[in-house]
């Protein structure tokens, strides 16, 4: 089942999307495999603290975030990975770690690694560890209004 906020938002926006139900997974790599999608197409949402405020970084599952480059790209704030305890209450309609990459639904900015922008589609967790959404990347960008950055590197 999709996060109620995500489901309502996508339906209100008349966004074309497909729901992918899969076996329970925890990591983005596992989810990409379970949904039969490439690690370039499946997006993972990495939770950050930027000068203490929560933010999302969305990137292909095949990549790892570079916090130094992100800090430089954002003008020098302190950027660190958020702990689960920092963000678990920020997503009341989602399982911890399965939040969709629509930060504005939860009051936080979204940064996207621009490698995703080169993909025709994007897939991502939909609020549970057993559901994902696949949609045209252009629709995701229109709705999420992310800041595009070139930051991650291959794991």
Automatic annotation (TrEMBL):
Any Pfam family the entry gives: tRNA_edit
Transmembrane segments annotated in the record for this chain: none
InterPro entries the record matches: YbaK/aa-tRNA-synt-asso_dom_sf (IPR036754), YbaK/aa-tRNA-synth-assoc-dom (IPR007214)
Residue span(s) of domain YbaK/aminoacyl-tRNA synthetase-associated: 22-143
Protein name as annotated: Deacylase
Species per Swiss-Prot/TrEMBL record: Noviluteimonas caseinilytica
């Amino acid at each position: 089942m999709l996060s109620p906020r995500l489901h309502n938002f996508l339906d209100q926006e008349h966004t074309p999307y497909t729901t992918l139900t899969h076996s329970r997974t925890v990591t983005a790599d596992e989810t990409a495999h379970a949904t039969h999608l490439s690690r370039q197409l499946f997006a993972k949402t990495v939770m950050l603290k930027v000068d203490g405020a929560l933010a999302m970084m969305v990137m292909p599952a095949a990549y790892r975030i570079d916090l130094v480059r992100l800090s430089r790209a954002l003008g020098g704030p302190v950027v660190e990975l958020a702990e689960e305890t920092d963000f678990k209450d920020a997503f009341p309609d989602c399982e911890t770690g399965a939040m969709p990459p629509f930060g504005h639904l939860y009051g936080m900015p979204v940064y996207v690694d621009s490698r995703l922008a080169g993909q025709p589609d994007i897939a991502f967790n939909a609020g549970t560890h057993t559901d994902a959404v696949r949609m045209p990347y252009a629709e995701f960008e229109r709705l999420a209004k992310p800041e595009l950055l070139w930051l991650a590197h291959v794991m």
